[in-house]
Write a structure and sequence with these properties.
14% helix, 38% strand, binds zinc ion, mainly beta, elongated, two-stranded antiparallel ribbon
Length: 168
Amino acid sequence: MPNPRKPFRINVGFIIHEEVGYSHEIPFEMEKVKLEDLELQNFTGRVEIGRTPQGLIVQGRFEADTKLECVRCLREFTDPLEWEITELYAFTKKSVSESELLVPDDAHIDLAPLIREYALLEIPIKPLHDPECKGLCIECGQDLNVEDCGHSQESDDSPFATLKDLLK
Ligand SMILES: [Zn+2]
Ligand SMILES: [Zn+2]
């Protein structure tokens, strides 16, 4: 049974003892899941763990929603994410891949850090609730997506403002 506090901790002991070529699929469905700082809603996905001569190949596909804050207008919005993971958990150090994952002695692997890392790659560095977001007025803070307050959006600190002053 999955541990509700560590839903991605999987006992792979029985897979290790299967023949090469065997694979086991685990479906996931969670209304909410928290991976350290990353909060996901409507999480669904599946993980396939395959036995190879060198170790266990873990392949996963996931979908979830995450809440982000628009960098321009600061409103919170829901961003749908879709991502995949593929990693080898090697039986011995000799066959480790670049990510250097090994099947631990207790035969329990926790996929949470991997799922989190790959999900983070899907999150934009500067999230926008809409690619055309107009942002907030630099003068009065009005959300320009909602209403235009009529203020000029040219900053006084901009090099152009200084140039304008010189031309006066
Ligand atoms: Zn916005
Ligand atoms: Zn304004």
